Amino acid sequence: MHSLSHLAIRPMLHIFAITCLAATGFVAGYVLTFVLKAVKMTRDWQYRVGGVAMAYPFYVVLTICTIDWLEWLQWSHEEYDVWTVVGTFGLWLAMGIPSTYIGASRCMLVHFQNVGYA
């Protein structure tokens, strides 16, 4: 077995990690909508869910870009190149935003079924 054979699985692990992170959006959307229902603020829930869906990916990308910028200032090699970060961010948003909205919609449907509207 070659000593670098473990690197062949890294792209698959990368995509798997992004998919898992995007899937957690379902839980985030469900919990946010549940809390909004508890405090009776469900009027503009779509905008709030959109903000929640994008907040954590933006934070992670900003952190990685800040670390890369600090490494660039010290003339060291960056861990992730810019296009990997941008591609990961785009893929995360493309899968995470619908996942968050699906979780929020599921919570809203459960609410309406419990009170007899559906």
In N-to-C order, the SSE pattern is: HHH
Whole-number mean pLDDT: 82
Instruction: List low-confidence stretches.
Output: none
How many DSSP helices? 3
Percent of residues in beta strands? Answer: under 5%
Question: In percent, how helical is the residue content?
Answer: over 70%
Task: Let me know the largest β-sheet.
Answer: none
- Topology, number of strands: 0
Q: Identify the overall geometry.
A: elongated
Broad structural category = mainly alpha
Tell me the distance between the termini: 59 Å
Overview in brief:
The chain is an all-alpha fold. Helix content is 78%, strand content 0%.
Description:
This protein has one domain (about 20-115). It is about 80% helix and about 0% strand. It contains 3 helices and no strands. The chain has helices spanning about 10-40, 45-75, 80-115. Helix 1 (about 10-40) crosses helix 2, helix 1 runs parallel beside helix 3 and helix 2 (about 45-75) runs antiparallel to helix 3 (about 80-115). The mean pLDDT is about 80.
